[in-house]
Amino acid sequence: MVATCIVDRPPTMATFGPSLWGDTFSAFSLDDKVQETYAEAIEDLKKEAREKLKAATNSGQQIIILIDTIERLGLAYHFEKEIEEKIKQFHDQFQENYAENEEDLFTIGLGFRLLRQHRYNVSSSVFAKFMNKDKKFKETMVDDVEGLLNLYEAAHIRIHGEDILEEAVAFTTPHLNRVLPQLESPIKDKVKRALEHPVHRAVPIIEARLYISIYEKDESRDEVLLKLAKLNFNYLQNLYKDELSQLSRWWSKLDLKSKLAPYARDRLIECFIWGVAFHYEPQYSEVRIAVAKSMQMVSIIDDTYDNYATLEEAQLFSEILESKKGLVSMVKQLAWAYNKELKWIVKRELPSFEEYYENSVITRCVYVMFTAHFPGMKSVTKETVDWLLSEPKIVITTAKMGRYYDDLDMDFALVYPPEQLTVMDCYMKEHGVSRQEAVSKFLELVEEGWKDLNTEWVTKTYSVPEEMLVQLLNYVRVTEVTYNNGQDGYTNPQKVLGPYILALFVDPVVV
């Protein structure tokens, strides 16, 4: 068999280290009394917060600052009805005369972003008043850091053809980077985080954990909201620990770790962070667990094709999966896509960029991951599944963006052998460009992808549950976080996902 391996697959294989987390979560036991104490305190504070929402005026900064704070602290799911009512009222005023008469960049920027995040298609022309006759933003605004920050954040929910927001990114980014060293907390923390992950592109629960630390430094903070956010986060963290404990026991019972090491990645906890990214609210426990299980198993299948099987074994494995009646069609489709990839790699046959990408959209696992946890989403119907499988543009865009981020992985050459082909190689060969030129192109594809996704989010009406659309957006968000700055935070979680896992699942917030 050794001789066969050398002939029909690359002679060198990647090896992966064990999980960083060992048995960290397996022994956790949820204390119901602690959770009940949290729940009672949360309910009391929710009443106070709800009164603040009701009392807030619908004009000026007050209501949008309050809503933004609630959302960024991870509390919005407690006040969905109230927030939607206030946002609608604000939108009606914004459309009529508010944006026209308001001269404050902070308010216009924040209002615009919130409305678009709530799927109101407001016009970016509201920023025209801040530009000069040459259609450049006025340099007099460079000292308005809060205004610049909100313009920057607003620009990251732009759609195609919005030159004014393209200019906004080009204007705000260098100015915010320039002033950052001179700033003091909490505005310094806000700017630093925005430059790393604009709020529209960030994972909500990660941002909530980080924003709690930023918000408590703010002299204008609302103590009720701050305390509510801290208690709420600790309540959620206990739920996550309990889910991780269940997952850890499931994984141990399967007893695959010793059999698969070192050729396959043991990244169950990193998979779970994807589930939490999809839906962090308490009622989605089944979803989070299903996402983690399906993603870990798919990861093993991926590594088996990429890193272990010969061509003959891969073909046989694909045929076995195809014949198993219990497997959903998406898993079978995924197996054949991996099989096709392996043939290209072993035979050193570079396909066209378009052909590789068509196949790699399947290997991004969107369909497998989404269909695996549908039982945990009460609003999902057969019509929802049919819609997903009909390949609407928002789903294809989501899958492609996952691929773009993955293909920007700069750690790839450090982990995998040089003969392992990537889509980057296909692009370089087909277009006769350098790796740096290919990287620049993929960064451009990421930005175009976000505009595609934002266009679908803001301008289209879909007859599917809102939570499905939110999940598609969150899929892209967690992909960006995982592959931040060209690092593979899934394969090598120490620097990228590791700190987030500690913050979300290990360290409670001090109340």
Automatic annotation (TrEMBL):
<keyword id="KW-0479">Metal-binding</keyword>
<feature type="domain" description="Terpene synthase metal-binding">
    <location>
        <begin position="327"/>
        <end position="452"/>
    </location>
</feature>
<dbReference type="Pfam" id="PF01397">
    <property type="entry name" value="Terpene_synth"/>
</dbReference>
<dbReference type="InterPro" id="IPR050148">
    <property type="entry name" value="Terpene_synthase-like"/>
</dbReference>
<dbReference type="InterPro" id="IPR008949">
    <property type="entry name" value="Isoprenoid_synthase_dom_sf"/>
</dbReference>
<comment type="pathway">
    <text>Secondary metabolite biosynthesis; terpenoid biosynthesis.</text>
</comment>
<dbReference type="GO" id="GO:0016102">
    <property type="term" value="P:diterpenoid biosynthetic process"/>
</dbReference>
<dbReference type="InterPro" id="IPR001906">
    <property type="entry name" value="Terpene_synth_N"/>
</dbReference>
<protein>
    <submittedName>
        <fullName>Cis-muuroladiene synthase</fullName>
        <ecNumber>4.2.3.67</ecNumber>
    </submittedName>
</protein>
<dbReference type="InterPro" id="IPR005630">
    <property type="entry name" value="Terpene_synthase_metal-bd"/>
</dbReference>
<dbReference type="GO" id="GO:0000287">
    <property type="term" value="F:magnesium ion binding"/>
</dbReference>
<feature type="domain" description="Terpene synthase N-terminal">
    <location>
        <begin position="21"/>
        <end position="195"/>
    </location>
</feature>
<dbReference type="InterPro" id="IPR044814">
    <property type="entry name" value="Terpene_cyclase_plant_C1"/>
</dbReference>
<dbReference type="Pfam" id="PF03936">
    <property type="entry name" value="Terpene_synth_C"/>
</dbReference>
<dbReference type="InterPro" id="IPR008930">
    <property type="entry name" value="Terpenoid_cyclase/PrenylTrfase"/>
</dbReference>
<keyword id="KW-0456">Lyase</keyword>
<dbReference type="InterPro" id="IPR036965">
    <property type="entry name" value="Terpene_synth_N_sf"/>
</dbReference>
<feature type="domain" description="Terpene synthase metal-binding">
    <location>
        <begin position="253"/>
        <end position="322"/>
    </location>
</feature>
<keyword id="KW-0460">Magnesium</keyword>
<dbReference type="GO" id="GO:0010333">
    <property type="term" value="F:terpene synthase activity"/>
</dbReference>
